[in-house]
Amino acid sequence: MTLSRRTSLLLLAFGVWSWLLWPTFFRNIWVSENSWQAGAPTPFLYVHFAIAAISLVLGTAIGVLGWRGFRASRS
Questions:
Q1: Which of 39, 41, 61, 71 could form a cystine bridge with 45, CB 3.0-4.6 A?
Q2: pLDDT digits 0-9 by tens, 56-72
Q3: pTM score, two decimals?
Q4: How many domains, in total, are found in the chain?
Q5: What's the domain range around 68?
């Protein structure tokens, strides 16, 4: 399967966007009063950590696909 240059750039932009968005989201969840109760993490923190981690993994995979497609379209 061959990706167009435009599609590759879109996938690459999505990967970069994921790395800009999710770490900030996680920092905000970490300091939220809903994340801690009596010094221990709550299910709220665990769920949002899992969402952020999975999103970063998927964003990275999509970004890598975009980068590979972009490199292939240049040659």
A1: 41
A2: 999 999 999 999 999 99
A3: 0.86
A4: 1
A5: 5-33+41-74
